[in-house]
Amino acid sequence: MVRIVRKGPLPNPHEVIERLVPVAAQAQSIMLREPRPTGFPLLFTAQWQLIEPAVAFLHEHFVQRAHTADTLRTYAEILYEWFETLEQNAIAWDDADAVDLVAYRNRMMLQPSPHTGRPYRISTINHRVRGVLRFYEWAVRMHWLDASPLVGRPRSFAVARQPRPVRADATQAADHSVFVLRQFEPLPRPLISEQARELLACLPPPYDLMARWQLYTGLRVSELLRLGVRDVSARRASAASHHTIEVTRKGRKPGYMIASASLLDETEGYLSGHRHAWLQRARHKGRAAEHTALFINARGAPAGKNAYQRVISRAGQACGFKATTHLLRATFACMLLARLERLASQGAAINPLLVVKVLMGHERIETTDRYLRAIAVDAGVLKEVLDTLLSGTQ
Question: What is the pLDDT of residue 177?
């Protein structure tokens, strides 16, 4: 089976056997122009041969293009699953064609995930298929392959079709539509006021405050975890009801959010209470206790994404409804958009979609439009959204 080995740090000369000391010392002195960091994933075959094109692809996207660690992990998982499938079927990666990719896609449609035991979502299947296509396009562009049946227009399944004129800008979408499944993305359904209050009451610190930040600012989990103590401590001493805080958005794009004074006051109470006590306890037990991260857990370590998502999911189950961290963000978007739409209907000179797009950090306005359609389908939901907004900002 395909293996992922994480790159480790170079050993110090005193940590190796005597005959390897000169080699270890020499390795320490070698300067690399583009070194791969510790923890970088290296893919090997079952015979422990390095899968060089896959590693080169990850190197370019993480080291050269400076993508985030989440992007690196996603690409590594996609390549691992693809090369594992090829190896199980004794198919060389440079011989893979459209039939192999379709079989890979269909297998995910028919079999549950070996990791979770649940069926794959259509979005997950399409994400992996697009990742494989992106890898082969890169391999051809970087001359790892002269050509590939997965790249370009010829993707024949021996079915004769009458050629039709296609717009130039639709060529890429037409190519990928052969492999990508039709996907109907459900409209987000925000939490109603009672659900939001019940969920927050069921969460332990610091996750209750983290959920409040998502509900009242619309931050992604990754953006929430990047918040530092300085981000909330450096606000101006003013009587303003809201404060603007700069954040780093998805893809390292600069952006900002608006936090209410009441939310920041609650955060200051957390800093002087739970956070201070947890750091003190960590110091007494000899653990590292100097963190700039705003949110830490009871052990004094920075709060983790997976732990936070598990706590939200379990709290939702205990309350009798589904809850996710993305649903908290969607609730903020629907709340804000409903309020702005009402203000616009009363004559305010604002563009509700554009305002929500900026505050949510969306790349495309089409993404924001989903929330407008969500609040339009149910008048009852709209009323509850407004109730949640008004009660949450008092």
Answer: 62
Distances (CA, A) of 172 to 61, 178, 248, 378: 21, 11, 31, 36
Contact 120, 175 (CB under 8 A): no
Distance CA 369, CA 379 (A): 17
Residue 387: the pLDDT is 55
pLDDT value at position 239? 64
The per-residue pLDDT for range 153-162, each reduced to its tens digit, is 544 444 434 4
DSSP 111-127: S--TTTSSPPPHHHHHH
- pLDDT attached to residue 138: 96
The sign of the dihedral angle between the CA atoms of 65, 68, 69, 70 is negative
**CA atoms 245, 250, 252, 255: torsion sign:** negative
* Residue 180 near residue 130 (C-beta atoms within 8 A): yes
Task: Give the chain's end-to-end CA distance (angstroms, integer).
Answer: 57
Is the pLDDT confidence value at 168 over 50?
A: no
Q: Greater confidence, 70 or 385?
A: 70
| pLDDT value of residue 235 | 59
Q: Which two tokens stand for residue 361?
A: 């950090």
Q: Which fold has domain 193-392?
A: hpI Integrase; Chain A (1.10.443)
CA atoms within 13 Å, Cβ hemisphere of 276:
7
Report d(CA 173, CA 133) in Å as an integer. 12
The predicted structure's pLDDT at residue 391: 54
- Assess contact for 144 and 56: CB atoms under 8 A: yes
Compute, in degrees rounded to 10, the torsion defined by CA atoms 309, 314, 317, 318.
Answer: -140
> In angstroms, rounded to a whole number, what is the distance separating the alpha carbons of residues 392 and 215?
9
Query: Where in the chain are the domains?
Result: 3-157+165-176, 193-392
Neighbours of 330 (CB within 10 A): 22
Among candidate residues 7, 88, 74, the one with its CA nearest the CA of residue 45: 88
Which residues are CB-neighbours of 45 under 8 A, at least 6 positions away? 2, 3, 51, 83, 87
Instruction: Report pTM.
Output: 0.71
pLDDT digits (tens, 9 = 90+) for 221-242: 999 999 999 988 865 556 678 8
- What are residue 43's DSSP bridge partners? 4
Which tokens sit at 189? 């359904």
**339, HSE (Cβ side, Cα atoms, 13 Å):** 17
The alpha-carbon radius of gyration of the chain (Å, integer) is 25
